[in-house]
Design brief:
The complex is a heterodimer. Chain A contains eleven helices and twelve strands. Chain A is of the alpha/beta class. In chain B, a hairpin with a 6-residue loop joins strand 5 and strand 6. The longest helix of chain B is centred in the last third of the chain and has 19 residues. The chains are: A alpha/beta, B alpha/beta. Chain B: Keywords: 4Fe-4S, ATP-binding, Cytoplasm, Iron, Iron-sulfur, Metal-binding, Nucleotide-binding. Chain B: Heterotetramer of 2 NUBP1 and 2 NUBP2 chains. Interacts with KIFC1. Interacts with NUBP1. Chain B: This is Cytosolic Fe-S cluster assembly factor NUBP2 isoform X1.
Chain lengths: ~325, ~270
């Protein structure tokens, strides 16, 4: 490997059924794979040894949060970045962001780290640091050009996520925030499964007010229930827009079915807050700056800060069981 | 030759297949798919929509058919017809769920199997256009859809973006996907391009402006136009009012009609 270049991605056949599958070693795609013998032997059917390694790695990580949404483009990555920036304002708090959106990694751009590369050290891959106490890991750092597409099926994406959790030298971390792609599929199942033994504090669900978004978000909340992931609460983004000229408010994505508020009441999950649409948020993300410090007095900033505080309170009350350390 | 016809099966009567793609979620793929179907219908065409977004199917609601069911017949699944004239047909996983809030928690292989079934087993009948709406990304759904459709020679892909750089970054990757899989890019659409305040008519670029056009230029593919954010249309899509009636009155209509014209022209070149 050339010095300074990203770590090699592990090669698997295009249609690998996954080592845990019944088809492992037996599918058409397994013909010619160097691991075919191992997979078909059935030895891999037991618990994945990586789970234990990840559990060990996560011992130095106090809180683990997932940012989820069934719907795309509602502001998961924006919220992840702002939550990280907000928490990192306290210099004694160590924050790590893991971008689990393998096909559409936005974190490098939003964090102003585009073009950065991951380096390898004796203890694993080093995250890329925005500030001393804020590290980021994303598949975006492993690509050689912004045009590179990650055309991978599920098993390969899962392998990448496993590597991120097991092989990154995260160090002593107060908060690990995992940003996810939209949906309820491979990436989500893998993150939850790999972190299951390490205890996830919970998930923050992001939505926008319109029913077309909410119908996907309800599915995501159902997903959380199915995999027994606690829901910390719901954030409603793009909630109303105040015209900069006439100062009157319009609903760009009208909450025709009562918005997140109604959904939260029906599903009995907390609403963490509503954030109005401010065109400056998008502009700050595009240039990789923190909106919180660029527009400290915007109503959106105040709302974000309030939400961040609530998440922090939740985590503090929900601290790792002290009895284990006795 | 006969064999080829036979292999085409349920897609034999479909003239042109168009995929709607984006690397980014929430940029309006389903909205554009729905609206393009409406615009093509307006131009007198018969249109089918195949929704391969298995984890987040949105089109049934947008066309106000979320309560309908798919039926089986000898040749496969009968799609849901949106209107009495049967000019728009739709197939979506949304019709197969027992409860609308059921989460489809599936890994890749299961999603791929259903997509293959969607492509071979839906009895579309005679269609001028089949629009395939996809989830965001460049993964299982996309690879399977493009692979399964390859024998039917799709006309190409309409790639949707919003103007801001963070979205354009993901959409660049989608264009690479098209290039790698040999899928022709019919053009890039910039959606949510500007919002006109209903109170004072001031236009605000909520997600900045011009990113789609720049991307198309950079990638050397056609730019199909900007579609403004139109709360009236969002509202009518949301409430299931009669969009077939309301759609031609909306602000976004002229932009979408132009895109539909472009696609019709492409299709006629392809057929001749």
């Amino acid at each position: 490997m050339a010095e300074g270049s990203g770590p090699a991605l592990d090669a698997r056949p295009h249609d690998c059924p996954g080592t845990g599958s019944d088809e492992a070693g037996k599918a058409d795609a397994c013909q010619g794979c160097p691991n075919q013998g191992l997979c078909s032997s059935g030895q891999l059917a037991g618990p994945d040894p990586a789970l234990e390694e990840i559990k060990e790695k996560m011992k130095t990580v106090k809180h683990k949060l997932l940012v989820l949404s069934g719907k795309g483009g509602v502001g998961k990555s924006t919220f992840t970045a702002l939550l990280a920036h907000g928490l990192a304002e306290d210099e004694t708090t160590q924050i790590a962001v893991l971008d689990a959106d393998i096909c559409g990694p936005s974190m490098p751009k939003i964090m102003g780290l585009e073009g950065e590369q991951v380096h390898q050290s004796g203890s694993g891959w080093s995250p890329v640091y925005v500030e001393e106490n804020l590290g980021v890991m994303s598949v975006g750092f492993l690509l050689s050009s912004p045009d590179d597409a990650v055309i991978w099926r599920g098993p390969k994406k899962n392998g990448m996520i496993k590597q991120f959790l097991r092989d990154v030298d995260w160090g002593e971390i107060d908060y690990l925030i995992v940003d996810t792609p939209p949906g309820t599929s491979d990436e989500h199942l893998s993150v939850v499964q790999f972190l299951s033994s390490a205890r996830i504090d919970g998930a923050v669900i992001i939505t926008t007010p319109q029913e077309v978004a909410l119908q996907d978000v309800r599915k995501e909340i159902n997903f959380c229930h199915k995999v027994k992931l606690p829901v910390i609460g719901v954030v409603e983004n793009m909630s109303g827009f105040v015209c900069p000229k006439c100062k009157k408010e319009s609903q760009i994505f009208p909450p025709t079915t009562g918005g997140a508020e109604m959904m939260c009441r029906t599903l009995n999950v907390p609403l963490l807050g509503k954030v109005p649409l401010d065109p400056q948020i998008g502009r700050s993300c595009d240039i990789g700056h923190s909106f919180l410090s660029e527009a400290p007095n915007s109503p959106a900033t105040l709302s974000y800060r309030n939400i961040i505080q609530r998440i922090q309170d939740y985590c503090n009350q929900n601290s790792p069981q002290e009895e284990k350390t006795i | 030759m006969e064999k080829v016809e036979e292999e085409k099966g349920n897609l034999a009567g479909v003239q042109h297949i168009i995929l709607v793609l984006s690397g980014k979620g929430g940029v309006g793929k389903s909205t554009i798919s729905t609206e393009l179907a409406l615009a093509l219908r307006h131009a007198g065409k018969k249109v089918g929509i195949l929704d391969v977004d298995l984890c987040g199917p949105s089109i049934p609601r947008m066309l106000n058919v979320q309560d309908r069911d798919v039926h089986q017949c000898d040749n496969g699944w009968v799609p849901v017809f949106v209107d009495k004239d049967k000019s728009i047909a739709l197939m979506s996983i949304g019709f197969l769920l027992e409860k609308p809030d059921d989460a489809v928690v599936w890994r890749g292989p299961k999603k791929n199997a259903l997509i293959k079934q969607f492509i071979t087993d839906v009895t579309w009948g005679e269609l001028d256009f089949l629009i395939v709406d996809t989830p965001p990304g460049t993964s299982d759904e996309h690879i399977s859809t493009v692979e399964s459709l390859r024998p039917f020679k799709p006309l190409g892909a309409v790639v949707v973006t919003t103007p801001q750089a963070v979205a354009v970054g993901d959409v660049r990757r989608e264009l690479t996907f098209c290039k790698k899989t040999g899928l022709r890019v019919l053009g890039v659409v910039e959606n949510m391009s500007g919002f006109v305040c209903p109170h004072c008519s001031e236009c605000t670029n909520l997600f900045s402006k011009g990113g789609g056009q720049e991307l198309a230029k950079h990638a050397g593919v056609p730019f199909l136009g900007c579609v403004p954010l139109d709360p009236q249309l969002t509202q009518s899509l949301e409430e299931g009012r009669d969009f077939l009636q309301e759609f031609p009155k909306s602000l976004a209509f002229s932009a979408l009609a132009d895109i539909a014209q472009h696609l019709l022209a492409e299709a006629s070149i392809c057929s001749s």
